[in-house]
What we know:
Elements: E1 14-19, H1 22-30, E2 39-43, E3 51-55, H2 57-60, H3 70-76, E4 81-84, E5 87-88, E6 91-92, H4 95-108, E7 113-118, E8 121-125, H5 127-136, E9 153-154, H6 164-172, H7 179-202, E10 206-211, H8 214-221, E11 229-231, H9 237-242, H10 255-264, H11 269-272, H12 277-284, H13 286-296, E12 313-318, H14 328-353, E13 355-368, E14 381-384, H15 389-408, E15 415-429, H16 436-442, H17 473-489, H18 500-503, H19 508-533, H20 539-544, H21 571-589, H22 594-601, H23 611-616, H24 619-628, H25 644-647
Parallel strand pairs: 2-4, 9-11, 10-11
Antiparallel strand pairs: 1-8, 1-10, 2-3, 5-6, 7-8, 12-15, 13-14, 13-15
Helix pairs in contact: 4-7, 5-7, 12-13, 14-15, 15-22, 21-22
The chain binds thymidine-5'-triphosphate (TTP) and calcium ion (2 copies).
One calcium ion binds at residues 18, 118, 120-121.
Amino acid sequence: MPVARPEPQEPRVIAHVDMDCFYVQVEQRRNPALRGQPTAVVQYNDWKGGGLIAVSYEARKFGVKRSMRGDEAKMVCPSINLVQVPVARDKADLNVYRSAGSELVAILSTKGKCERASIDEVYLDLTDAAKEMLLESPPELLELIFEEATKSNILGLPSDIGNREDSVRAWLCRADADYQDKLLSCGAIIVAQLRVKVLEETEFTCSAGIAHNKMLAKLVSGMHKPAQQTVVPSSAVQDFLVSLPIKKMKQLGGKLGSSLQDDLGVKTVGDLLSFAEEKLQEYYGVNTGTWLWKIARGISGEEVEDRLLPKSHGCGKTFPGPKALRNNASVKSWLDRLCEELSERIQSDLNQNKRIAQTLTLHARASKGNECDSIKKFPSKSCPLRYGTGKIQEDAMKLFESGLHDFLGSQNTKWSITSLSVSASKIFDIPSGTSSILRYIKGPNSTVSPANLDCSLPQDPSLGGINQFSNSSLTVLTCKHASLGNKLYITPNHEEQCEPSSSEKEDRGKNSNLDKQHQVKEEKRMSKKLTDVKGTCSILKFLSQSSPVVNEKRKLDSLTCSHPGPESSSEPNKAEEHKSAQPFDRNKSNPSGSNSASSSTWMFNVEDIDPAVVEELPPEIQREIHGWIRPPKHSSSKTRGSTISSYFQPAKRS
Ligand code: TTP
Ligand code: CA
Ligand code: CA
């Protein structure tokens, strides 16, 4: 369940940047003939022309939607260009999109703390940059305002007064604005500059939201798309939120949002305002109650994390309809391919970024017998991650078998798998000062051998099956640290053999100065470049050279976000139930005890699912994970009316 974070004392300037029809833009850059054309990217599949996963704004004008199949898109827009996602190992290969996302991150991170939130979006904390601008070149003293900034959408600014750009310019330059709004104006100018820089350097357009916190910035970044930005002054927050459907709020897209709707009759954020904080706490617990009370008022203390790299790696594949997998051999064959890709990606993360992943998780969607939609879900399973393709494949298969065992219970029935994915999470940096570790592991002149990173616990022969790993990944994490640490400290002479990229981490003080110098240079270079284009270039103008831009009012649908928060689900309770039932199960259903023991040991805790991993999984699995998130049942012994809403009826509704 979500919890309220302490709010910062000082006002912040936060931006959320999201690429427009991202995969389409990547394909258009690869094949410029597609620019300005109705285009969609299609997931590899030969059924009805494949599933659309990204749709250009030109195609959206014809009514083409992401939910369509290729054949359907052709019907509503005969001229549409359908581009297939690159394929490797018979599945989508997203590497080209991932590295395009990294280009965005590299540019945006020059201006402040930057958090890579998904394949095509980032959060930026621009507070320091905005304060600096306000001190050194406040907008009210500028002769010319960066043109792209004057195209901003400012929430609450009347749109019917004269020339819109003039009124935006006037708003950005108000001498009598309060400090918070002045900072936002600077933020809007900085984001406009960054977006133009992204366009110039990557050829991609993006949209952005600028506000005092992450929640508001994310809520508005998709409000005006493509290639536009939206600013949320504090004075506009209440009007903006009041009519916003509750399900559009981050972390309320799932069961918690449903409970608010069904149990309390809360349809919009405005409806939530009529509940006292104590009432919300009474129903959802102290932390979540306070969180709900605050978000209804646009208050969120959540910080932008300093993270340029993904939090996790995941790869999956769906097997719709007749393609469902129905035996261990076919599951193994697919798992092997997925694990091979995962192994390559964590290996490259290790080589390039000196990061090690700790946890391997398997998710699947299954049905059994003749049920098409089993009520019981296939439990996600995880275990400590051992490097090396063969080991990952072996472990993933064991996780699958363990999950299947739990899924089927005592039933000896047929089953089918419609979706399968593996992910590597809990990634940590190899600590600074340990840069020789890779060289030590590799040995001079050799490439890293993943098998060498196997730090699994000494095996206990008394434990069978996947129990050999451990009861908790924490244990193995400790082991990994210890093991890596030992190797490092007994071989200090390997330090000088470090590759430059590794040794960069050794002297943080020195390097942070270098980084700063580099950053200042970069900023100077950028501001020069931006001065060059001042008054002549705007993103919309740039776009209009190739095609007319639809100023499409974007539906807020895609803003729905229901990933599990730090305390987000009752799944742990499920795990608890499972654990407490374990001795009984073990004795009853499995005399050897090994499998049932493992099943409770490896019950995946939904708290541990990283939202970034979820985003990379097939939509089917994403939906399932979102479905897990449900509010806890109220344990109060109070007698309610026939529905909870009758008990907690908001005043204005009664
Ligand atoms: P989104 O940011 O949701 O969408 P988008 O960038 O295509 O379009 P918009 O301009 O509305 O932001 O997703 C980013 C990319 O992630 C998208 O281009 C393709 C991929 N993706 C999938 O593969 N499957 C999905 O279900 C979704 C939502 C996205
Ligand atoms: Ca996007
Ligand atoms: Ca996105």
